[in-house]
Design brief:
two-stranded antiparallel sheet, single chain, Beta-lactamase, five-stranded antiparallel β-sheet, alpha+beta, 9 helices, 296 residues
Length: 296
């Protein structure tokens, strides 16, 4: 029962909001719209939790073609499969984007969004042409909702080619010899890496940039759209509900299937887990965590 205790505050919120949006309520239209928006968010959270619980209780075989779990304190591999096989990594790319932003920009630097910056698949209405926005807010949009136009816009602070060069240089510096990036958002399947290389990246982030992990598990980031209405950036990583989840980044492309880099506190130790080319990364993640808890 304790496992599902986090559902009760959400269900309580549904009961709290429902009377206010009932037919005949005297609240203003603005407040009504705001409450309806909040209720939709709560409904989504319940759906997310249901799926997370289903995958938590799944006991299917691990579907990932490649994975690796590493004790980040000792730097030792706990469990692995095909750790040097290269796959497209999809939006896991954005974790390296975050590193480049953290090490080469000031978080309060601003840029005015142009049509070119927003010309990607995956668009947020809170990011629009002519908006002056900080690097920090673009980074949050990238890591929380995996917003591609935000990640693309970040690359314009240094120039797209220069930014990608910095990503590949950092990969080389970290010993990620089987990794290559071609953009800042991960839409191109030629962004490729291995579980072994991505374990080096997530280990580096854990040691040097814990603020990126903190951002990645945030689910309370809002920006206004052109009309001034606040819109929530929904966290695409359902693990943020779990108390032992320390942060990470998920991705998906047809060529990559489901990908994930994550850090969990397991047996009182930070453990980095990388999953590539998976049919169900959440179920795979829970299976790997169970194996680690049980001593493999």
């Amino acid at each position: 029962m304790k496992k599902f205790s986090f559902l009760f505050p959400i269900l309580s919120a549904v009961l709290l909001f429902t009377p206010f949006i009932a037919e005949g309520s005297s609240i203003s239209n603005w407040n009504r719209d705001r409450l309806i928006q909040q209720l939709e968010i709560v409904k989504r959270e319940i759906s997310v939790l249901k799926q997370l619980i289903e995958n938590m209780n799944s006991r299917d075989d691990i579907t990932a073609s490649s994975y690796l779990a590493m004790d980040l304190e000792e730097g030792s591999v706990i469990i692995e499969k095909n750790p040097q096989h290269s796959y497209p990594v999809a939006s896991v790319t954005k974790m390296m984007t975050g590193v480049i932003v953290a090490e080469n920009m000031e978080k309060n630097e601003k840029i005015v969004l142009s049509e070119k910056m927003l010309d990607t698949h995956g668009h947020s209405p809170a990011l629009f042409k002519g908006l002056e926005v900080t690097a920090e807010n673009l980074l949050k949009a990238s890591l929380i909702q995996s917003t591609n136009d935000a990640a693309n816009a970040l690359s314009y602070f240094k120039g797209k080619d220069r930014f990608v060069d910095l990503m590949n240089k950092k990969a080389r510096d970290l010993g990620m010899h089987h990794t290559h990036f071609v953009d800042s958002h991960g839409l191109n399947p030629n962004n490729r890496s291995t579980a072994g290389d991505l374990a080096k990246l997530i280990s580096y982030v854990h040691k040097e940039h814990p603020e990126l992990l903190e951002i990645s598990r945030d689910n309370d980031f809002w920006l206004p759209n052109e009309e001034g209405r606040l819109l929530k950036f929904m966290n695409t990583n359902r693990f943020y509900h779990l108390s032992n989840y320390m942060g990470g980044k998920n991705g998906y492309l047809p060529q990559a299937k489901q990908t994930s880099t994550a850090i969990f506190n397991i047996n009182e130790k930070p453990v980095g887990i990388v999953i590539l080319h998976s049919e169900n990364r959440e179920a795979d993640m829970f299976s790997i965590i169970d194996k680690i808890k049980e001593g493999i």
